[in-house]
Specification:
Elements: H1 2-32, H2 39-56, H3 68-94, H4 102-122, E1 131-132, E2 141-144, E3 147-150, H5 151-173, H6 175-185, H7 187-192, H8 197-222, E4 225-226, H9 230-245, H10 250-270, H11 275-289
Antiparallel strand pairs: 1-4, 2-3
Helix pairs in contact: 1-5, 1-8, 1-9, 1-10, 2-3, 2-8, 2-9, 3-8, 5-6, 5-8, 6-8, 9-10, 9-11, 10-11
């Protein structure tokens, strides 16, 4: 029982990372109608940016750890910076192609991803070598029903849950959320109703980038190492989570992320090489039964 609970905690920890990143995929797809394959690299930018920001506040450490206020400032700066980069990426790379065939935007997204992964490698102060991520949260262990749970895991899961709940509230209960839903239904009609479509899409990318930064911080806090390629496979798995839950649906992205995280941890416990493949196996099974994903809905396009 203790072992199962321990694996469940690890699964929720990994699932919170997938869910936060999957939210960015599903928001962009739901509103813009494109798959932003560079989204996983925003996770890397958030984690790598947090590393350098934390270095600037190194003198504020007390007994080797950062005060919670400083941690909050570091995370906020990383979220704002990553969100800003996401907005700039949309304006430069994606906006000029918005009315072009989707395949062109898809290829562009792959090119942007390759650029974001390889450009930092050429910078002398970053480079290709992995770096040890600083300890942001003071680790304290608790024993619950025989399973060891750390304060870092609790903070990660709570942070992910609060962030996702806040996003769900924004999308469904605020004016900008209503504008997002309107743009996702019909951009032209939304524009005729006085909604600034470019502004709404920019805000969508900003929120997605900020969530990616949070997921990068959570992942690097659990597995304290950052490098320029960390967003590649995490982005792939989060995309699988978004499709699994029903891409375009916020609740589906959250559900898909946690299902995938828990499944991977239990599969890895059985066979270390099976963990990566289990996500795709689950995806294939779900799509065979429900092609739109667990919470997605099939949409028939009229021609």
């Amino acid at each position: 029982m203790a072992t199962i609970l321990q694996y469940l905690v690890y699964g929720l920890q990994l699932g919170s990372v997938y869910a936060l990143l999957a939210l960015g995929y599903t928001m962009v797809y739901g509103i813009v109608g494109m798959i932003n394959f560079a989204h996983g690299d925003f996770l890397m930018i958030g984690a790598m940016g947090t590393y350098f920001i934390a270095k600037l506040f190194e003198g504020q450490r007390i007994d080797g750890t950062y005060p919670m206020l400083i941690v909050g400032v570091i995370i906020l700066i990383a979220m704002l910076g990553t969100g800003g980069i996401a907005v700039g990426t949309e304006a430069i790379a994606y906006r000029p192609l918005r009315n072009k065939p989707r395949m062109i935007a898809l290829i562009t997204a792959v090119g942007v991803s390759m650029f974001l992964e390889n450009f930092p490698r050429a910078l002398p102060f970053i480079g290709p070598n992995p770096r040890s991520f600083p300890t942001l949260f003071t680790p304290t262990s608790f024993l619950v029903l025989g399973a060891s749970i750390t304060s870092t895991q609790i903070i990660m899961i709570l942070l992910a849950a609060i962030t996702m709940a806040a996003l769900y509230f924004v999308v469904n209960r605020t004016k900008i959320g209503g504008q997002m839903r309107a743009v996702s239904m019909d951009k032209d009609a939304a524009s005729l109703m006085g909604i600034n479509v470019n502004r709404v899409i920019s805000i969508t990318f900003f929120i997605g980038g900020a969530l990616a930064a949070v997921s990068g911080i959570c992942y690097a806090s659990a597995y304290p190492q950052v490098d320029v390629y960390m967003g590649s496979w995490l982005g792939n798995m989060s995309f699988v989570a978004a499709v699994l839950g029903g891409i375009g649906d916020i609740r589906g992205a959250m559900l898909g992320g946690f299902i995938l995280g828990i499944a991977q941890i239990f599969a890895t416990a059985i066979n270390s090489t099976f963990g990566y493949a289990v996500g795709f196996i689950i995806l294939i099974i779900i799509l065979l039964v429900k092609p739109a994903g667990i919470m997605g809905k099939l949409v028939v396009e009229k021609v």
